[in-house]
Every structure is written in structure tokens, then in C-alpha cells.
Amino acid sequence: MNAAAPAIVSDLPTLERELAELFVQALNLETPAAEIDPAASLFGDGLGLDSIDILEVALEVSHRYGFQLRSDDENNHQIFRSLRSLAAHVAQHRTK
To answer: 30 Cβ partners below 8 Å, 6+ apart?
Structure first.
């Protein structure tokens, strides 16, 4: 049994809020962080981000949480599907 798993799950709402703030700051979004739906798509009808925005966010996440998000990762579509999926990925891989 992994003792860290419950801490990761209980920390997700906090991490989602941190990442929402990171999105607003890194991308100069006009949408307040508190209004970003963690389950909404980051692309298209959701937050409306494009690939350049995601690269900027990936750099910020890598710097802040101590692990690298790679552009050639086959799971990027899943990782960046929503704020919630990104938070779950960060929770599993963060070193800071």
C-alpha cells in the first residue's frame, strides 16, 4: 500500500488552485483563477488555450514543481486535458 496516495488525492484541490493562479500569471489571463473550472477543457470551448500557451505553462510548471514536462510525451493530450488532469500529473511527479 502506498502511504502517499491519500495525501496526493486530498491535496488536489489546493494544487488545482495553485495551477489556476499559475495559468493566470503566466498567460496574463483576464479570467480570475477562482473562475477557472478544474474539469473544463484547457483547449477550445474551455479555457481556449493553444499549443504556445501550453508550452509556457509547461515551462512554469517544470520550474515551480521540479520536474520536466516534455513536448514529446505521448500522454500530453491526457495530461493537458484539464486543470484537474494536470494537477493529478503534477501531484504524482513533483519534487518540490
So the answer is: none
Q: Which domains does the chain have, with CATH numbers?
A: 4-93 (1.10.1200.10)
C-alpha cell at 24: 493566470
pLDDT (tens digit per residue) in 68-78:
998 889 999 99
Distant-in-sequence, close-in-space partners of 15: CB < 8 Å, separation ≥ 6: 87, 90, 91
